[in-house]
Amino acid sequence: MSCLRQYIYYILPFQKIPPNKPYRIHFTYFWQKLSTDTIMEEKTYSLPVLLYHRVVNKDSVTGNHKIYVWEKDMEKQLAYLKSEGFEAITFVDLKNNPGMDLKKKVIITFDDGYEDNYTLLFPMLKKYGFKAVIYLVTQADHNAWGVREGEPRINMMTDRQKQEMSNYGIEMGGHTQSHVDLSKCSEKEMIREIAGCKADVERLTNKKAISFAYPFGGLNADVKRITEEAGYLYAVSTNTGPKQFGEDRMQIRRIEVTPRTSLRSFKNKVSGYYFYPTFLKSFFTGKQTK
Ligand SMILES: [Zn+2]
């Protein structure tokens, strides 16, 4: 069975087989690789980068956009990560330790900088000893862009709250000054929103802001270029970009956690194999995914 698995793997189109080589050579490759049962695992594992916005504990502040998780679900998710020995890292950790083994690691990101990140999330992060990355809209005291679409008005964290979380080790990244869709901005506006936001975050935290999140996931080649030119080392999107972490550090795909995400689904999302169907993985590696 293992032979069959490996052979099918090597004739799949995404495997690089030297061009113009006869079938016999393919077969040689196949035999050489027979013992490497973990190869598929290595090729498909991708560091999970989770996307959250808010943590809530009452109905009145939920909203229709479903960009929240219930406090009790967040607690279950963090407890699961802890019990499985996961470490929640930040982009600062990655920058300081580029060769780090990414297995059993996760990056937990929260967009916008809502007050509940301080009041509800922060105590849980401290309880479980986890870090996170929060992307700040630096010149907004509430979610004006959401209110325009009928969402409840939700306050952002105060500067002191942001500073306290930053001092604890939460990474503060940029998310523009006023939460605009950058793909619809002029170049001048892009620079103000992206570079201006970076300066705001750095003034607030007294640390370099090295990562950025595109509001609404809105991006194009110019947006990415200006973000890189502003000095950000990493930028996260929503559901676009390569499925393999590290292939495009200016368009890092995230996995959203919503109020509909069950614990079972969460386990899949942090497994590192979320973008690859489980049956394929277990077929190729002969192991059952957890
Ligand atoms: Zn946002």
Describe the structure.
This protein has helices at 2-11, 23-32, 39-44, 71-83, 91-96, 115-128, 144-147, 159-168, 187-205, 221-229, 263-269, 278-285, and strands at residues 49-52, 54-56, 68-70, 87-89, 105-112, 133-136, 171-174, 211-213, 234-236, 255-256. It is built from 12 helices and 10 strands. It is α/β, with parallel strands linked by helices. Strands 1, 4, 5, 6, 7 and 10 form a 6-stranded parallel beta sheet that branches. The longest helix has 19 residues, at 187-205. Helix 6 links the parallel strand 5 and strand 6 (133-136). The chain folds into 2 domains: 2-42 and 276-285, no CATH class; 45-269, Alpha-Beta Barrel (TIM Barrel), CATH 3.20.20. The structure holds zinc ion. Zinc ion is lined by residues 111-112, 175, 179, 215.
Summarize the structure in short.
This protein has 290 residues and is α/β, with parallel strands linked by helices. 40% of the residues lie in helices and 13% in strands. The protein starts with a helix and ends in a 5-residue tail after the last helix.
Key phrases:
290 residues, alpha/beta, TIM Barrel, 2 domains, 13% strand, globular, binds zinc ion
* Number of helices, counting only DSSP H or I runs of 4 residues or more: 12
User: How would you classify the quaternary structure?
Assistant: single chain
Number of domains: 2
The radius of gyration is: 21 Å
The average pLDDT is 88
Cofactors, ions and other ligands in the entry: zinc ion
What is the number of strand segments? 10
Q: Report strand %.
A: 5-15%
Low-confidence stretches: 31-37
CATH level 1 name of the largest domain: Alpha Beta
Please identify which CATH superfamily of the largest domain we are dealing with: Glycoside hydrolase/deacetylase
- Helical content (DSSP H or I, runs of 4+): 40-55%
Distance between the termini: 21 Å
Question: Overall 3D geometry?
Answer: globular
Largest sheet: 6 strands, parallel
- From the 3D coordinates, which CATH architecture of the largest domain would you assign? Alpha-Beta Barrel
Task: Spell out the helices and strands N to C.
Answer: HHHEEEHEHEHEHHEHEHEEHH
CATH topology category name of the largest domain: TIM Barrel
Structural class: alpha/beta
